[in-house]
Design a protein that fits this description.
Shape: elongated
Strand content: 25-35%
Structural class: alpha+beta
Number of domains: 1
Strand order of the largest sheet: 3-2-1-4
Number of strands: 4
Helix content: 10-25%
């Protein structure tokens, strides 16, 4: 088994979805969250936040609509 892989291209389409407490966000973002207590952040493999959305289902939908493969981070 000598299959070679280009490690730079593996997992480029994976994004990580994790819950974020609204209380941990800056005040201006807390105000925009309204009554929500938890938002969901979408991050790329380098840890850069790509999006912050209202719920997990929306985060997964957003990722898939952009040809990404979402996985949950606990």
């Amino acid at each position: 088994m000598n299959t070679k892989f280009d490690l730079k291209t593996i997992a480029q389409d994976i994004v990580y979805v994790k819950p974020v407490a609204v209380a941990d966000l800056p005040d201006d973002m807390q105000a925009q969250a309204g009554p929500l207590e938890i938002l969901f952040a979408v991050h790329n493999a380098q840890g850069e936040q790509l999006a912050l959305v209202a719920n997990r289902r929306l985060a997964f939908h957003l990722a898939r609509e952009n040809d990404m493969r979402p996985v949950t981070v606990h």
